[in-house]
Design goal:
The protein has a domain of 211 residues: Rossmann fold, CATH 3.40.50. The protein is built from 14 helices and 16 strands. It has a six-stranded mixed β-sheet with strand order 4-3-5-7-8-6. It has a six-stranded parallel β-sheet with strand order 11-10-9-12-15-16, with helices on both faces. The structure holds NADP nicotinamide-adenine-dinucleotide phosphate. NADP nicotinamide-adenine-dinucleotide phosphate binds next to helix 8 and helix 13.
């Protein structure tokens, strides 16, 4: 694939997780939040793709996901409060009344003399006069956070989630359905501002936690205070729970969610003659989580892993082997050869996703490309610094007076298209040709959820394959993450999972349909 190597001419820059050691096969405690799980079963491997040798299988290391921290459910006062969320929340006091105080609060009683409300997420208390749960975070994000008066907050951390992420839509619909006075926002954070943002999260009493997206799933791990065993094993985090003590504990719900969707997709596709290997495109946080989940949930299924950067491919392959699967790595130039041998393709690269990709060197876009072909889009110079982090606000509780402009436009400008189009044309031609090489029964799952139909999925659909986009994965992982972040607030309620699932599915369908 063109564009290999870090920040090669015209290529996108290396992601910031480079150089971090792999942590597979063991757990790493950052304050007693990790726990060993039970052993898995590796199962027998199918034959390797032609001309390639599968690597050694490591020991299976199945681990349990579990809640990363405990909370103090809200005090009774919270139940009676009226809330107004940017996304149109309707607070239903009965939901909160059901939650019981567990006495885990730390340092409660702060505030400005108004009625204090015990907060599940910890240190200090949220008061009647201080109901902007996002206040501590405003100075540390590039985008404009909604103006809200809810008791709790959550969000998604990424480089520009405000421009493409569907998570706010899904989570806010679920909060509303649950009657939970909480808001979920997008947190656009530049790499150089990540540590300051995390510190602000620790000191934000109303924050329940946050999701993590591109490009921080791996990088954030080293800066957290604890990591659950699954996230530790794959070296990537997609959800962070803020504990009552203000500690940030990482979890990973991506892998099981993608596995669930892949199994459903294959269940509905015509059966092949044997379980053929899964082609996993990518080697980032999502690829690790998905690969490890396949290793554990589909014993005996081999994987073929293809990634732009070979060192990262090997690192990720070794993590997946540690979870029990046979993994063959192939360089992008050899992708063509393995395509007729695989039974499923899972795209876990960012190639095809909408929104700008911002690096220290500049900004680019990947939506017009397919991960089946080379994707080396030109970089435009980084946009000028824009706002919030540089405003030097005296108090984090004071929102920026003037709206900060987004750090990069959602759609590429004409100058980018002029330089990018020859590469796009080449990518499309190669991708379609490669899609035609897949076996008819091969299924294609793209973790990319925006746009709803990526170039990869379009080419796979055109060539007759069963396909699924990342929307289903997004919902499945979000349900799990929401239950972790908010579970203790909802402890008295039955059928919470179903309510959340239905609300998120309805919101997703509304938007796509
Ligand atoms: N639907 C869901 O719920 C869900 C869940 C998780 C992730 N995702 C999606 O999965 C994707 C990956 O997420 P992540 O967290 O793993 O991101 P990440 O850690 O930043 O990894 C990005 C991956 O994309 C590859 N990549 C980036 N630019 C490329 C290019 N120009 N050409 C070829 N490969 C390129 C990287 O290759 P190198 O290693 O060579 O840099 C790496 O393998 C994103 O689109 C994300 O939105 C969706």
């Amino acid at each position: 694939m063109g564009g290999r190597g870090p920040a090669g001419a015209g290529g996108t820059a290396p992601l910031p997780s480079e150089g971090r050691p792999a942590h597979h096969g063991r757990t790493r405690a950052r304050g007693g939040d990790t726990r060993r799980g039970r052993g898995g079963s590796p199962g027998g491997p199918p034959g390797p793709p032609r001309g390639h040798r599968l690597g050694d299988r490591g020991p299976a290391g199945r681990r349990h996901l579990r809640d990363g921290g405990a909370y103090t459910p809200p005090g009774p006062r919270a139940a009676g409060r009226a809330h107004r969320a940017g996304a149109g929340h309707a607070a239903r006091p009965d939901a909160l009344g059901a939650a019981r105080h567990r006495g885990l609060r730390e340092g409660a009683g702060g505030g400005r003399g108004s009625a204090a409300v015990d907060h599940p997420a910890g240190a200090g208390a949220v008061t009647r006069g201080d109901l902007d749960p996002l206040a501590p975070l405003r100075p540390h994000v590039h985008n404009i956070l909604p103006s809200v008066h809810t008791t709790w907050a959550a969000g998604v951390l990424g480089s520009h989630p405000s421009l493409y992420s569907r998570s706010p839509l899904l989570w806010n619909a679920a909060f509303q359905a649950l009657g939970l006075p909480a808001v979920y926002a997008a947190f656009d954070v530049a790499p150089e501002g990540l540590e300051a943002f995390l510190s602000a999260c620790r000191a934000a009493p109303a924050l329940l936690g946050f999701s993590v997206t591109v490009p921080y799933k791996e990088r954030v791990l080293a800066s957290l205070d604890g990591v659950d065993p699954d996230a530790e094993a794959v070296g990537a985090v997609n959800a962070v729970v803020r504990t009552p003590q203000g500690r940030l504990v990482g979890a990973n719900t991506d892998g099981p969610a993608a596995l669930e969707v892949l199994q459903r997709l294959e269940g509905g596709a015509p059966a092949g003659d044997r379980p053929r290997p899964v082609l996993l495109l990518g080697a980032g946080g999502a690829a690790r989580a998905v690969g490890a989940a396949i290793a554990r949930g589909m014993p005996g299924r081999a994987l073929v892993l293809c990634n732009r950067r070979p060192d990262r491919a090997e690192e990720t392959a070794s993590i997946i082997r540690g979870a029990g699967a046979e993994v063959l790595t192939v360089p992008p130039e050899e992708l063509e050869e393995v395509l007729p041998d695989v039974g499923a393709v899972v795209n876990a690269t960012s190639v095809g996703m909408s929104g700008p990709i911002r690096t220290a060197e500049g900004v680019t876009w990947l939506e017009p490309f397919s991960p089946l072909g080379p994707a080396a889009p030109p970089l435009l110079p980084p946009p000028p610094a824009s706002g919030a982090p540089g405003l030097g606000l005296a108090s984090p509780a004071v929102p920026p007076a003037a709206p900060a402009a987004p750090a990069a436009p959602a759609a590429p400008p004409a100058a980018w298209w002029e330089r990018a189009w020859p590469g796009i044309v080449r990518n499309l031609e190669i991708s379609l040709r490669r899609a035609m090489r897949l076996r008819p029964e091969a299924v294609v799952l793209d973790l990319v959820y925006a746009p709803a139909e990526s170039v990869l999925l379009k080419h796979a659909r055109w060539t007759g394959h069963a396909v699924a986009n990342g929307e289903l994965v997004l919902i499945a992982q979000a349900v799990e993450a929401l239950l972790r972040l908010c579970g203790p607030l909802l402890s008295g309620r039955a059928d919470v999972r179903k309510v959340v699932q239905r609300a998120m599915q309805a919101a997703g369908a509304q938007r796509t349909g």
